[in-house]
Each structure stands twice: as C-alpha cells, then as structure tokens.
Design goal:
This protein has 238 residues and is of the alpha+beta class. The protein contains 3 helices and 13 strands, in the order ααβββαββββββββββ. This is Lipoprotein.
C-alpha cells in the first residue's frame, strides 16, 4: 500500500501558485474598477463643465436688464414711443444663419467680441467724428457708431459735418488707453444707426433700424458689456 503522505509535499507546493493566481485576479479586478471609476469621473467632470458653460452663457444674457434708464433712452430715441420690458425680445446679429448650429442654442442672440485690432487714432479723429463718438462715463471706453465710411467736411463757418461716403455701416468699441478696439457690428446698405449711449461705466447700447424685404423695417437694440466682452441683440416686438 502506497503511503499517502508522499503526496502531501506536492499538494502543499500548489498553494503558493493558487494564492498568486487569486492575487493577480483581485489586482486586475481592482484596476478595472479603478479604470471605470476614472472614466466615470472624467465623464462627470465633462458634464459639469458643459453645464457650467451653458449657465455662464445664460448668465451673460441676464446681465442686460431693461431698467428705467434703458426704457427711457429707448423711448426718447424712438420719438417718444412708449417702451416697456416686453417691447424687445431676444433677436440675433446681422448675418445670423438660422440653419447654423447656433440656431438650436438657447442664447443664439448672445456672442463674444471678436479678436481685438489696433486702435491708435490721432487727435483729429476725435474732433472730426465727435458727433458719432460716445465715451463711457469714466472715459475708459469709446463707442464709434458712424466714422466708418463717413467723410468729414468743414463748412464756411468752420464747423465740421459728416457726409456719407460708404453705404455700409460699422460699429466699433475701443479702449484708447490700451490701443485696442473690437467690431460690434458690420452691416450693408439699408441699415441706419438711430443712436448710441453708455448705460454705465462698462455697458453700452446701440439702437438701429434695417430695411428688410418689401417695406418692413426691423428695429434692433444691441447691448454690450466691456467686462465680459459680450454682446446681446434684442428685437423690437411688432
């Protein structure tokens, strides 16, 4: 009869191998779980980032409020027409493509300033185009809503007036102290700037009318914020 104790050392030698295999499986499982958790965390962070960006855009549109100063200026600019908070609704910038991806956005009427360009006019610029220039109350910013395409003509009395040379319209806003300016709007023939003003030290407003198909005239308000470099278009309700 064969002694069974002879097999004992062989069985005992198998234990370390078995433990090693189990350890490998456990470690592999942990790494897989860690990988899944990492992916979930990345996805969660991406989702939070997207939500934050959407909220930021919504907040930008909410910063433009129709207070009494706004409605009072609009009413005076439009010849005394009564204007309340429901008179203007969110619109869109000139050239807006309704088939673009922005059309599905909640804030298609809100956009950022484009890239800044150099702004170093001479003193004659401020004199010749004074009628279409608006400085912010603290003089930090300047809004130009009519120098483009205009020709300064000095009359016999020495007073300078502006005559139209180009049918296109361009609105610019700048920081003279930093020699930078940004384009607010560019529009072709049929667009007339009614007036422009600063609501406070960093927010400006521009009201313009544009000829549409047939005899229809659209009246649009642009509100801009120099702190966030954001623009928002509002359309006059018919």
């Amino acid at each position: 009869m064969k002694n069974t104790s002879d097999n004992f050392p062989q069985k005992t030698a198998c234990w370390p191998i078995g433990l090693l295999l189990i350890s490998i499986l456990v470690i592999t499982g942990c790494k897989c779980n860690q990988g899944d958790q990492t992916r979930q965390q990345v996805d969660s962070l991406a989702g939070l980032s997207a939500d934050s960006a959407s909220q930021e855009i919504r907040n930008r549109s909410h910063q433009f409020t129709f207070d009494s100063l706004t409605t009072g200026w609009l009413s005076a600019t439009m010849g005394g027409r009564k204007v309340d908070t429901a008179a203007f609704t969110s619109g869109h910038a000139p050239g807006f493509d309704p088939d673009s991806t922005a059309a599905g956005s909640q804030d298609a009427a809100t956009s950022q300033f484009p890239e800044a360009v150099n702004f170093q006019p001479d003193q004659q610029y401020y004199k010749d185009y004074a009628s279409v220039l608006r400085f912010s109350p603290d003089s930090s910013y300047i809004l130009d809503f009519g120098s483009y395409g205009s020709i300064p003509v000095k009359g016999k009395s020495g007073r300078t007036t502006l005559e139209g040379g180009e049918p296109d319209t361009k609105i610019m806003v700048g920081i003279p102290g930093q020699h930078k300016e940004w384009q607010v709007m560019f529009a072709g023939p049929g667009t007339a700037i009614l007036d422009a003003t600063w609501k406070n030290d960093h927010q400006f407003m521009v009201l313009y009318a544009s000829q549409q198909e047939g005899s229809r005239i659209d009246t649009t308000l642009i509100m801009g914020d120099m702190h966030t470099q954001t623009l928002h278009w509002f359309q006059l309700s018919k």
